[in-house]
Specification:
The protein has 452 residues and is α/β, with parallel strands linked by helices. The protein starts with a helix and ends with a helix.
Length: 452
């Protein structure tokens, strides 16, 4: 059978306008796997759960599927912690897959010998945990970019293609892994319109579900119940729940009451993670992506993080601004309008003063102005360039009000380059998760995975 990777790309003028599946379909795919996701039967549920031997002589286990109750919950952060804890228990062959993805990046597939696209979270997990025993080809089988939904409804993409891609990938990873972690996309219903919701995919591959929710009681439980019912409808066992971003002053209360409430459903609380605000602080590289503009100075500080609460919009005189620079914490993010060239120059001069005095200066400046209407002048750019690219300065092509609103509403995402935040997130979450209970609930105990 031809490579579906090549069939799935439709180019126009050299530009890829659709990208569906990033892996090669095997011509030997058994017919029992060529199943419509909308018509999953008992014969197709939990096929990969059978404990076949992999190349290491161990027995493959049931996949663990992780889904959130809604967007921006902290699912990927939870997956990082789960991968870290599982790798310590299965150090030789832990697997990872994101069956259905959306935001994708280019990578090189060694098996295919070419560049393919995979979900951005796949690159983070594979590179951070050095999963060299799994090729990118198998880690992100289905991608849903813009236009995919219309193509699916128009009949240009079939459910069989999606199923075959997912099953081939799970099979390939199972052969070289003792346990597989599957990361979903959003809540359990995401992907329903193309017949590939998290609930249906979890059922297809025979996975047990771990639901991730944010701290609270009533609203938290309500969201969990909606997703639990979807799992039940698809015949997926909910192995447990992990609640994160729990207010520290409500931690014991949340842990106690949610444990008891979930216990009535026979679902254990696998983890209760207190909030750590630093993990939600954007780095300057996050703001680059948010504004879709590169830093114009200070690129070496792209991974420096700033507290959203410490953002300061400059509307005062230069004198007052300079006083604020010396009174506020050094690592403060300032915003000013493009017409306030005095503020930009004051910012540069304060940096020079601190440098001569041997003092640290970690403040960053975002210059705001609607594109085509208010932009940084050439003369000012020359002044900024004259400081040797040391002072972190960005440009936002939006009004100051819009820029402030965008930053406050922004949820930074973990990425492979921001190693300090990735390590901090993993370390923080890992100690609050009961891995032994997770493995027991999913039938992935160390003895069962390694026994004859």
């Amino acid at each position: 059978m031809a490579s579906f990777h090549s069939l799935a790309q439709r180019c126009h003028g050299g530009k890829m306008t659709r990208f569906v599946v990033s892996q090669r379909l095997s011509s030997s795919t058994p017919s029992r796997f060529s199943t419509n996701l909308n018509d999953i039967s008992e014969s197709t549920v939990r096929v990969p759960a059978s404990r076949n031997r992999n190349e290491k002589g161990t027995k493959s286990s049931r996949p663990i599927f992780v889904a959130a109750t809604r967007q921006h919950i902290g699912k990927t952060t939870t997956c990082l912690a789960l991968m870290s804890g599982l790798k310590k228990r299965f150090p030789h062959s832990i697997g990872y897959i994101k069956p259905v993805g959306q935001q994708h990046v280019p990578v090189h597939s060694d098996l295919m010998g070419t560049e393919i696209r995979v979900d951005k979270d796949v690159t983070l997990i594979r590179e951070h945990f050095e999963l060299q025993h799994i090729d990118y080809q198998h880690m992100s089988p289905v991608l849903i970019p813009a236009g995919y939904t219309k193509d699916y409804i128009d009949g240009k993409i079939s459910s069989d293609e999606q199923v075959n891609a997912i099953m081939d990938s799970v099979r390939a990873i199972s052969e070289v892994s003792e346990v597989i972690l599957c990361e979903g996309t959003g809540h359990c219903a995401v992907g329903s319109i193309v017949g590939a919701s998290n609930g249906k995919v979890a059922s297809l591959i025979g996975a047990d579900m771990v639901l991730v929710a944010n701290g609270g009681l009533g609203s938290c439980y309500d969201e969990l119940e909606l997703n639990r019912v979807l799992c039940e409808q698809n015949g997926v066992n909910v192995a447990g729940v992990i609640i994160n971003k729990v207010r520290t002053d409500k931690y014991e209360q949340t842990k106690s009451y949610m444990s008891r409430a979930l216990g009535k459903l026979g679902i254990p609380l696998l983890g209760c993670v207190p909030d750590r605000p630093y993990l939600g602080h954007p780095a300057l590289q996050d703001l680059e992506r948010l504004f879709n503009t590169p830093m114009i100075s200070g690129c070496e500080h792209r991974l420096r993080h700033y507290t959203v609460k410490e953002i300061s919009l400059v509307t005062t005189s230069l004198t007052r601004f300079l006083a604020n620079l010396r009174e506020k914490p050094s690592r403060t993010l300032y915003l000013c309008h493009a017409t306030r060239e005095d503020i930009v120059l004051g910012h540069l001069l304060e940096y020079q003063r601190r440098k001569r005095a041997g003092d640290s200066f970690e403040a960053a400046l975002v210059i705001c102005g609607e594109q085509g209407k208010f932009e940084v002048s050439k003369e000012l750019m020359d002044m900024i360039d004259g400081h040797g690219n040391d002072v972190p300065i960005l440009v936002s092509p939006h009004t100051t009000h819009q820029t402030m609103e965008m930053i406050h509403n922004f949820t930074p995402k973990l990425n492979v380059h921001d190693k300090s935040r990735v390590h901090a997130a993993t370390e923080h979450y890992e100690k609050y998760i009961d891995y032994d209970l997770l493995l027991s609930r999913t039938g992935n105990s160390l003895s069962s995975c390694r026994s004859e």
